[in-house]
Amino acid sequence: MVPNRRKDQYQVSQKLENPSKVSPSYSYSVKVWRADPSAPLARVPLPDLFSLKNRTYVVTGAARGLGLTVARSLLEAGAHVHCLDMLPEPDVEGWKEALETAKAQGTSINYHTVDVTSQESLSSVFSTIFNSTPSSTPVRGLYVAAGINQLKAALDYTPADFRKVIDVNLTGTFFCAQAFAKEWFERNPNENGKAGSGASIVLTGSMSGHVANADLLCAAYNASKAGVSPSVGRGVS
Question: Which of 43, 60, 188, 213 has the fewest CB atoms below 10 angstroms from its CB?
């Protein structure tokens, strides 16, 4: 039993479109848990439950999509954010919303153009970020969201097509984590070579690294994500 919560249970019936394969109708029970207003944390605002105030984070692939969404979430939690992407400029509307969020939270968001497949470029950008971040809001984490896909039948991939996806999604992910770790350890030396609880690196994996999604022709993407979760993640931990 879950403490400090009450349970509502109801029945739902639904007609199926293809009754030839299964029963033409069925019912199932859905349990809905509602927070008890008398619980100690029920009245605590969400930002106070999960706060990243006085911290700085780096997000790659943050010109739009997943990366920019993650960046906004970090801003909402009170963090300062540096966004990295290969595009010259971020999505106009998305960036406008991110700036508004940063202003409302009293934080900051900055954009850097960089190619995640270039060790030299990444080294320069991460060095700039770490050196320019004040000690009052230290860099505490990296979220790697940079990635691409190419929908194409496996028989039609050219060497260049396949390598491009692998270079960005797998090699680029490793280079980003590596560049971040180098800057971190330079400023936070530790005898056992581990960062401890001082910083976090989050890599974006995918179920496609474990199972093939039906009707999605993306062999290169699947292979790249299969390498991210078990290989790169353990290598940089």
Answer: 43
